[in-house]
Specification:
The complex is a heterodimer of chains A (338) and B (420).
Chain A: H1 3-37, E1 44-46, E2 55-60, E3 69-74, E4 82-88, E5 91-94, E6 98-105, E7 111-118, E8 123-129, E9 133-138, E10 144-150, E11 163-169, E12 174-177, E13 182-185, E14 188-190, E15 196-202, E16 208-215, E17 218-225, E18 230-236, E19 239-243, E20 249-255, E21 264-270, E22 276-278, E23 290-291, E24 296-302, E25 310-316, E26 324-327, E27 330-336
Parallel strand pairs in A: 1-4, 13-18
Antiparallel strand pairs in A: 2-3, 2-27, 3-4, 5-6, 6-7, 7-8, 9-10, 10-11, 11-12, 13-14, 15-16, 16-17, 17-18, 19-20, 20-21, 21-22, 23-24, 24-25, 25-26
Chain B: H1 16-22, H2 27-57, H3 66-90, H4 93-113, H5 117-144, H6 151-179, H7 184-205, H8 211-219, H9 234-247, H10 253-262, H11 274-296, H12 298-317, H13 323-351, H14 357-386, H15 388-419
Classes of the chains: A mainly beta (338), B mainly alpha (420).
Chain lengths: 338, 420
C-alpha cells in the first residue's frame, strides 16, 4: 500500500466509525425524546400544586413522560394512578411539610445537589454535594433533614470509598458533617481517619438518630445524639438503618457475604431485646428501607433487564412471607401520613 | 567532558539541511499523539461515568474502587515491563503498541455486552492492562522518530495531545448524558468508535521502527541481542534511583483534593471538577516545559517539577483556604505532571542504550509507578494515624529534603543533559 492509499483508507474508516457513532447517538437521542413524549407505561395524572392526603412519594421510573420526576400514589391505593410532579430527583424523601430531593445536575460539568422543597414545591434551601447522591431522610415532625452523598470525582481520581453525611434543621441550623461527631465504638473513642458515616434515620425527639458508621472495613449501627454530638455503636454489620414509626425496631441492610463483594440481606433489630432477625428476601438489597407501617417494610430493587428502572417491594418485618412487588417502576419510597 | 554526549553521537551535529527539519516535531509523534488522544477519549469517557452507571443505572452503591485500583497498579507494573521487553526483544515497538491498543479496544466491545459489577470491573482491568502494554513501546517509537535534541518537546507534544483526550473524554460523556440521561450505551458505543479509530490510525499511518536493526545497518555492527543487563548503565541507574526516591514522596492527587475539601476551602460542587482543572493545566504546560527541558536541561525541569509538587503540598497545609488556593494547587499539579511525565520518558530514552529504549523507559516508569503506589498506601496509613494536614506537612518536609538529595544524585547527568 502506498502511504497515500493508507491515508485515504484511514480517513474513510475514521469518518465511517465516528459518523456511525454520531448516527447511533442521534438515533438514541430521538429514541429518548420519543420515549419522553410517549405516554407513560403506567397510569398517570398531573399532581396538584399542593400534595395532600396520606400518600407514598417516590421517584417515577416508568418509561415515558414523567420519567425521573417526583410522584405519589395514595396510601390507600398504592397500585392506582400515580400523580406526577414537576421536580426531577434521583433520591427523594417526603414528609407532610417538606421534601428532600438529591439530584445529579447533568451537564458538561456534572455536579450534584440536595434541595429542600416545601409542600408547594418551592425550593427553600439547597446544598452542593461532593459526589453522587446516596441517602436522605427528614424527621417525622419535619424539623431535621439528613443527606448522604459519595465523595467522588471523576473516576480517575477516586480514592477508595468515601461518604459525606450532613444533618441540618429545616429552619436553617447546620449540624455539620457527622465526621465531626465523637464516635464511640464499644465504649472506646475512635478517631481513625477512615471513618465514614451514611444513612441517617431520625427518632421522634429531634435529638436521637441512628446511622451507619464504618472504619477499617467494618460497619456498625450507631445511635447518634445531636445535642451531645456523639455516635455510639449499637450493633455490628448494619447499614442504612430505618427506625420503625413506633420507635421500637430498626431495619437495615446487613452484609452477609463471605467474599469481598457485598451481599445485603434485610435485617430487623428489636431495640428492647437486642434480637436481630434476617428477612426472607433472597436477593441482595442495596437501599435504605422504609417502614410502610409498624409491620411492613418497603425497599427498591433495580430491574436487571432494564437499566434505570426499578420497583418498590414490600415485605412483612415478621419474616412470615417473601417480598412482593408493591409499586412498579418506582424508586426511593417515603410514606407521608396526614 | 568525561562522558560522551550521547551514543547516538552523529545526530548531535546537525547539518544545515536538517536544522530546519529539526525545529518541527515529527509527524509520527503527532500521529501517535492523536492515537493516544482518541484512546484517552475512549477510556476516560467510560471511566468518568462508571460511578454514575453503577449507582443510577444498576442501582448499586459504589463499591470501593480503591482495592481494585491497587490490584491494577501492581499488575500494570509487571505488564509494562513485559511490554518494554517484548518491544525491544522483537525489535517491533509498533506492533507491540498495536497489541496494547488493540486489547483496550476489544475491552470496549466487551463492555457493550457486560452486565453486573464484576464484569464491568473486568473490562476496566483489561482496558488498563492494554495501557500497561502499550506505553513503553509507544514511547520508544516517539524516541525513534524524534531528533534526540528535541526529545523533550516531542514528548511534550505527545503528552499534550494525550491529556487533551483525557480532559475531553469525560466532558463528551457528560454531554451525551446531558442530552440522553439514560444514554450509557451511547457512551459505550462512542467510546468503542474512538478506540477503533485510534487503533486504525496507529496501524495504517504510523511507520514501524526497528531501532536495533536500523542501528546495526547504519554502523555495520552486528545486531546486538537484547539483554536486560544492557540497562545496567550508571546514568540510567542514577535516573531510576532519583525518580524512585521522588516517586516515594508523590501521593495521589486525590489525597490533595480531599485535604482541600476537608479544609472547606471551596464549595463541594467543585470537587468533581478538580481533575479537569489539573488536566487543563497539564496540557497547557506540556509543550512549553518540554521545550524548556530541551533547552535548559531535562534534569533541571524534572527537579523543578517536583518543586511545584512541593509547593502544592505546602499550600494544602496552609491554614488559609479559598478558591485561589484551590486553583493554585490545580495549576501546580498540572505543572508538576507536565514537567515530569514526558520529561522522564525523554530522560529514560536518552540514557537507555540503543536498542533498549522501550525496556529502559518501561523500567524507569515502573520504578516510578511502584514507588507512587507505595507512597499512596503509606500516605493513607499516615493520614489515618496522624490526620490529613499533619500527614501532608510531613510529606512536604521530607520532599523538601529529598529534592536537594536528588540534585546531588543527578548532578552527573546534569552536565550531559544540558549539552545533549
Amino acid at each position: 500500500m502506498t502511504s497515500r492509499l493508507r491515508l485515504v483508507i484511514a480517513a474513510v474508516l475514521t469518518i465511517v466509525l465516528l459518523g456511525g457513532a454520531t448516527v447511533y447517538g442521534i438515533i438514541a437521542f430521538s429514541g429518548y425524546q420519543a420515549r419522553l413524549d410517549a405516554p407513560s407505561q403506567v397510569d398517570t395524572t398531573t399532581a396538584p400544586a399542593v400534595d395532600t392526603g396520606s400518600r407514598i412519594v417516590f421517584r417515577n421510573t416508568a418509561t415515558g413522560a414523567g420519567y425521573g420526576l417526583e410522584s405519589s400514589v395514595p396510601l390507600s391505593d398504592p397500585k392506582g394512578t400515580r400523580a406526577i410532579g414537576t421536580v426531577a430527583c434521583d433520591r427523594i424523601y417526603s414528609t407532610a411539610k417538606y421534601s428532600m430531593c438529591l439530584r445529579i445536575d447533568r451537564g458538561v460539568l456534572t455536579t450534584f445537589s440536595a434541595t429542600l422543597y416545601d409542600a408547594k414545591w418551592q425550593a427553600k434551601k439547597a446544598w452542593a454535594l461532593p459526589g453522587i447522591p446516596s441517602r436522605t431522610r427528614i424527621s417525622a415532625d419535619s424539623k431535621l433533614v439528613a443527606f448522604t452523598s459519595f465523595v467522588t470525582g471523576e473516576s480517575y481520581g477516586t480514592v477508595g470509598f468515601a461518604t459525606a453525611t450532613q444533618i441540618s434543621s429545616t429552619d436553617g441550623t447546620d449540624y455539620g458533617n457527622l465526621e465531626a461527631f465523637a464516635l464511640m465504638i464499644d465504649g472506646q473513642r475512635n478517631t481513625a481517619a477512615d471513618r465514614n458515616f451514611w444513612g441517617v434515620t431520625f427518632s421522634t425527639d429531634d435529638n436521637v438518630f441512628y446511622a451507619t458508621a464504618s472504619t477499617g472495613g467494618r460497619t456498625w449501627l450507631v445511635k447518634g445524639d445531636l445535642a451531645a454530638r456523639t455516635l455510639t455503636t449499637v450493633t455490628q454489620t448494619a447499614e442504612c438503618p430505618s427506625l420503625s414509626p413506633d420507635g421500637t425496631r430498626v431495619a437495615y441492610k446487613k452484609n452477609v457475604s463471605t467474599s469481598t463483594t457485598a451481599y445485603w440481606s434485610i435485617a430487623v433489630l428489636d431495640l428492647a431485646t437486642g434480637v436481630e432477625k434476617l428477612l426472607p428476601e433472597k436477593r441482595s438489597v442495596d437501599d435504605q428501607v422504609d417502614w410502610l407501617d409498624d409491620s411492613t417494610l418497603l425497599y427498591g430493587m433495580p430491574r436487571i433487564d432494564s437499566p434505570g428502572d426499578s420497583d418498590i417491594w414490600s415485605i412483612p418485618f415478621a419474616g412470615t412471607a417473601a417480598g412482593s412487588r408493591f409499586i412498579q417502576h418506582a424508586w426511593s419510597p417515603s410514606v407521608v401520613r396526614e | 567532558m568525561y562522558i560522551s554526549l550521547n551514543e547516538r553521537g552523529d545526530a548531535e551535529q546537525p547539518s544545515e539541511a536538517t536544522a530546519q527539519v529539526k525545529r518541527r516535531v515529527s509527524s509520527v509523534v503527532i500521529t501517535l499523539g492523536i492515537v493516544s488522544m482518541l484512546t484517552d477519549v475512549s477510556s476516560e469517557s467510560v471511566a468518568a461515568i462508571l460511578p454514575l452507571y453503577i449507582t443510577s443505572a444498576m442501582g448499586l452503591s459504589t463499591i470501593a474502587y480503591g482495592f481494585i485500583d491497587g490490584l491494577y497498579q501492581g499488575v500494570s507494573a509487571v505488564v509494562r515491563i513485559g511490554g518494554g521487553w517484548a518491544s525491544d526483544r522483537a525489535d517491533q515497538p509498533k506492533w507491540i503498541a498495536f497489541f496494547g491498543y488493540g486489547i483496550s479496544a476489544l475491552a470496549k466491545v466487551w463492555l457493550l455486552f457486560a452486565g453486573g459489577f464484576a464484569m464491568i470491573i473486568a473490562v476496566v482491568t483489561v482496558d488498563r492492562l492494554g495501557k500497561g502494554v502499550r506505553t513503553a513501546p509507544r514511547d520508544a517509537l516517539i524516541t525513534a522518530s524524534s531528533d534526540p535534541s528535541n526529545l523533550g518537546r516531542s514528548f511534550g507534544v505527545h503528552r499534550m495531545l494525550d491529556t487533551i483526550g483525557a480532559a475531553v473524554g469525560p466532558l463528551l460523556a457528560f454531554v451525551i448524558l446531558y442530552f440522553i440521561p439514560t444514554g450509557y450505551t451511547t457512551v459505550f458505543v462512542v467510546s468503542l468508535a474512538f478506540a477503533i479509530v485510534g487503533v486504525i490510525l496507529l496501524g495504517l499511518l504510523v511507520p514501524n521502527r526497528r531501532p536495533r536493526s536500523e542501528r546495526a545497518a547504519a554502523s555495520s555492527e552486528p545486531r546486538r541481542p537484547f539483554r536486560w543487563r544492557n540497562l545496567n548503565d550508571p546514568r540510567l541507574r542514577r535516573l531510576m534511583l532519583a525518580a524512585g526516591v521522588l516517586g516515594l514522596l508523590t501521593v495521589g492527587d486525590g489525597f490533595i483534593y480531599l485535604v482541600l475539601q476537608a479544609r472547606g476551602s471551596f464549595a463541594a460542587q467543585w470537587f468533581p471538577l478538580l481533575y479537569v482543572g489539573t488536566n487543563v493545566a497539564f496540557f497547557v504546560f506540556a509543550v512549553p516545559l518540554g521545550r524548556l527541558a530541551d533547552r535548559f536541561g531535562r534534569v533541571r525541569i524534572f527537579v523543578i517539577g517536583h518543586g511545584a509538587l512541593l509547593s502544592a503540598y505546602a499550600l494544602t497545609a496552609l491554614p488559609v483556604g479559598g478558591a485561589t488556593i484551590t486553583i493554585l494547587c490545580m495549576v501546580l499539579l498540572g505543572f508538576f505532571y507536565a514537567a515530569t511525565d514526558g520529561v522522564l520518558a525523554a530522560l529514560a530514552a536518552q540514557f537507555s542504550p540503543p536498542g533498549n529504549t522501550a525496556s529502559g523507559i518501561a523500567a524507569t516508569q515502573t520504578v516510578v509507578a511502584v514507588a507512587r503506589l507505595i507512597a499512596s498506601t503509606g500516605f493513607g496509613v499516615l493520614w489515618f494515624a496522624i490526620g490529613r494536614v499533619d500527614a501532608m506537612l510531613i510529606v512536604a518536609a521530607v520532599l523538601a529534603l529529598a529534592i536537594p538529595a536528588v540534585v546531588v544524585i543527578l548532578r552527573p547527568l546534569l552536565t550531559v543533559a544540558k549539552t545533549a
